[in-house]
């Protein structure tokens, strides 16, 4: 049988699919872990057995951003990579995403919304301190761990101040250069959906119309929404820094400036243990997949 090309996702490790996006596909890894792999398609005409898609550079950019953050004293509300290879990045398995919560419950309760918004703003301010911005803060990219603490993920759009944001998502994005104004617009839009249960401009179906309304500042009134004036200030880009916004949220949400973030990072020892487990799992999976490939090749000859 002659070799074929397929439109089937290919992974060096296989595994059950968790989610798929522009920057890669997420599959189950060893216990308590997932592996995010580049979007590759099965291709028996190549020596590797796959071909890269146009989105692989986004995956490599995210790998570079995760590596950059790992060099710093990582923030507890940002997902940690325990092992990174060109075939996949191993990350802790989270309980759910903010999008899952909104789809299930319609809106967040006040206590959860308070904690999540403060943690999101804190993580965004930390990124700003190293002169980077996430660039795509929206519910699917905000994960929650088993204790209900935020772990921001998906750094394929992360960029330095002043760079152009090409891949963020309406309505958490306006046509702006990357910086405090663009990021606080996203946080204001997250506040809106958490407090109302509806995405900003949810009743506008046409993409072009929605885009124009965002650019022109044609946004719904928020006077009767919790912390509505903060939402308005975020949309208007009135905060000079994201740390300023974080401080405002601490006060407005009733936590106070002395609030201690209860979220934690994995310790270096935990990361090392997880990395060893992931390496062993990856080796085992590769061997099993190669055995399957050889068995199929014999069957087809």
UniProtKB/TrEMBL annotation:
The keyword Transferase applies. Pfam families: Pkinase. Residues 20-301 form the Protein kinase domain. Coiled coil: none annotated. This is Protein kinase-like domain protein. The lineage of its organism: Eukaryota, Fungi, Dikarya, Ascomycota, Pezizomycotina. InterPro entries: Kinase-like_dom_sf, Prot_kinase_dom, Ser/Thr_Kinases-Pseudokinases. GO terms for molecular function: ATP binding; protein serine/threonine kinase activity. Keywords: Kinase, Transferase. The keyword Transmembrane does not apply. PROSITE patterns: PROTEIN_KINASE_DOM.
């Amino acid at each position: 049988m002659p070799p074929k090309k397929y439109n089937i996702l290919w992974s060096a490790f296989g595994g059950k699919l968790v989610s798929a996006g522009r920057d890669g596909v997420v599959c189950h890894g060893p216990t308590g872990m997932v592996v995010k792999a580049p979007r590759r398609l099965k291709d028996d005409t190549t020596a590797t057995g796959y071909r890269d898609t146009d989105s692989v550079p986004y995956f490599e950019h995210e790998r570079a951003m995760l590596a950059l953050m790992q060099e710093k004293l990582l923030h507890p509300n940002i997902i940690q990579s325990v092992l990174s290879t060109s075939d996949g990045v191993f990350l802790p398995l989270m309980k759910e995403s903010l999008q899952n919560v909104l789809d299930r419950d319609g809106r967040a309760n006040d206590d959860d919304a308070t904690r999540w918004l403060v943690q999101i703003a804190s993580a965004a301010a930390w990124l700003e301190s190293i002169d980077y911005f996430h660039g795509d803060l929206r519910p699917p990219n905000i994960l929650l761990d088993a204790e209900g603490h935020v772990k921001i993920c998906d750094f394929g759009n992360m960029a330095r101040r002043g760079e152009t944001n090409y891949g963020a998502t309406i309505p958490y994005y306006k046509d702006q250069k990357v910086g405090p104004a663009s990021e606080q617009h996203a946080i204001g839009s997250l506040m809106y959906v958490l407090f109302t249960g509806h995405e900003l401009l949810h009743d506008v179906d046409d993409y072009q119309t929605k885009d124009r309304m965002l650019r022109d500042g044609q946004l719904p009134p928020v006077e009767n929404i919790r912390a509505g004036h903060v939402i308005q200030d975020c949309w208007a880009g009135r905060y000079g820094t994201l740390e300023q916004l974080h401080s405002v949220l601490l006060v407005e949400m009733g936590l106070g400036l002395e609030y201690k973030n209860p979220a934690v990072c994995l310790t270096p020892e935990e990361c090392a243990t997880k990395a060893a487990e992931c390496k062993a799992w990856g080796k085992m999976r590769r061997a099993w997949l190669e055995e399957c490939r050889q068995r199929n090749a014999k069957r087809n000859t």
